[in-house]
Specification:
With about 450 residues, the chain is of the alpha/beta class. The chain is built from 16 helices and 15 strands. The protein binds beta-D-galactopyranose.
């Protein structure tokens, strides 16, 4: 049995647009995902989150489901336009406040610690249409104002805050490749949006630390990163793998932990990468109380020497061109139904890379999990593939901890099947199966197993 530290936090995660539904209920304003998902062709099967898991109306039952799982922490996100319909504090939607108040109370009454993400991609549509969303520096002020409202209403009970989920995805998939809302394609905008995301995060943290220190909570940002393993032992490939990690994770983590962008990005991007003023970087540096990490997969990296292979996974939208790295997967690796390779040792290497680069920060794995082709047979979903995935990755987390990594918690993605962005409902990540006709939830084999993991505070070898 691989045992975890006694104070290790076991959780599971979701996000507002992916589960809540009630897209137009009780005064909620539209988000960029409401708009984007209704454009024909943007989401597989033209699906959308209008109803999703209908968590908005089934919240109490869902908390009981978490309790039955023995969950210690639940990571969810607040829908910004459910609280501020046009994104600004001009109007505060009390029904939205009420919903999250009830959710938080319900969690605490059942012994589950809320971990709240302020931004998991559902930007108020008005801010995008009228203010250019993440492309406008003013977004930092709008975000900090929204964050203040959340601290005011919920901070007496919420002690774990995550400002922004996955800056890389927002910037690269939303503004580079255009496959996520707001669907823009550019090789300049991702770096501008990314810059404003960092500033917005820092401003929201400043508000928390200056005005709400008495609430005594922790606040940080969650980045996502795959592991990049050099394809060969050559210096060129090793440098390419390193460069790929810098263009992925260090892009956002270096400013926060080291006070500047990675040198490789500065050199290669020229004036496409904005600069921080001294005042800004003083706010950014040291602005995370913990290192939130979402991790799913690994790819092999090789130096492209200016010649990118066609059909690479990230071969459009500027990113691969900018880092000049070719990415492949080893054909012998097993894959999830997202096509993501299952490589637990990559998880351990990434955790150790973070540990060394950022001088041993407290890390929280805020997402990890897998989509698999689940089938309900006689009321049972026997997802041994997902169970094996999580067991493998938890083993890797454990081994990283043995090597000194300060990993404090693990949140399985996801509590239940939900709206998987551009893939719609076709990709199931949940440890609870959701029948999207009846909306009934059923624990999969992985849920029953995860309950035991939590209970034993350990995972079998
Ligand atoms: C993350 C994201 C989640 C979920 C997951 C699986 O990037 O934060 O919302 O979709 O990936 O793809």
């Amino acid at each position: 049995m691989k045992k975890f530290p006694t104070d290790f936090i076991w959780g599971s995660a979701t996000s507002s647009y992916q589960i809540e539904g009630a897209a137009q209920a009780d005064g909620k304003g539209p988000s960029i995902w409401d708009a984007f998902s209704h454009i024909p062709g943007r989401v597989q099967g033209n699906e959308h989150g209008d109803v999703a898991c209908d968590h908005y109306h089934r919240m109490k039952d869902d908390v009981q489901m978490m309790k039955a799982l023995g969950l210690q922490a639940y990571r969810f996100s607040i829908s910004w336009p459910r609280i501020l319909p046009d994104g600004t504090t001009k109007q505060i939607n009390q029904a939205g406040i009420e919903f999250y108040n009830q959710l938080i109370d319900e969690l605490l009454a059942n012994g589950i610690e809320p971990w709240v993400t302020l931004y998991h991609w559902d930007l108020p549509l008005a801010l995008d249409m009228e203010k250019d969303g993440w492309l406008n520096k003013d977004i930092a002020t709008y975000f900090a104002d929204y964050a203040r409202v959340c601290y005011q209403y919920f901070g007496d009970r919420v002690k774990n805050w995550i400002t922004i989920n996955e800056p890389w995805v927002i910037a690269m998939l939303g503004y580079g490749q255009g496959i996520f809302a707001p669907g823009r394609v550019s090789n300049r905008e991702p770096y501008l949006a990314g810059h404003h995301i960092i500033l917005a995060h820092a401003k929201a943290v400043k508000v928390y630390r200056e005005e709400f220190a008495h609430q005594g909570g922790k606040i940080g940002i969650t980045n996502n990163c795959d592991w990049r393993e050099p394809l060969t032992d050559s210096v060129l490939d090793k440098t390419a793998a390193q460069r790929a990690l810098e263009f992925f994770l260090a892009w956002f983590a270096d400013p926060v932990y080291l006070g500047h962008y990675p040198e490789t990005m500065v050199e290669r991007l020229g004036d496409r990468l904005p600069r921080f003023t001294d005042e800004e970087i003083a706010e950014v540096k040291g602005s995370s109380d913990f290192f939130g990490l979402n991790h799913y997969t690994t790819m092999l990296a090789s130096d492209a020497g200016g010649e990118l292979l066609q059909g690479g996974v990230y071969g459009n939208g500027g990113l691969s061109e900018d880092q000049d790295v070719n990415l492949h997967v080893d054909p012998t690796w097993e894959k999830t139904s997202m096509g993501w390779a299952i490589v637990p040792w990559g998880c351990q290497k990434l955790l150790e890379w973070i540990h060394h680069r950022y001088a041993g920060p407290a890390i929280v794995m805020t997402e990890n999990g897998g989509a698999f082709p689940d089938e309900m047979k006689n009321g049972v979903v026997d997802d041994q593939d997902r169970l094996a995935y999580v067991r493998g990755y938890l083993g890797a987390c454990h081994d990283a901890i043995e090597n000194g990594v300060q990993l404090k918690g693990y949140m399985l993605w996801s509590l239940m099947d939900n709206f998987e962005w551009a893939s719609g409902y076709a990709k199931r990540f949940g440890i609870h199966y959701v029948d999207f006709e009846t909306l009934e939830r059923t624990p999969k084999a992985s849920a029953l197993w995860y309950r035991e993991v939590i209970e034993r505070n350990g995972v079998e070898e």
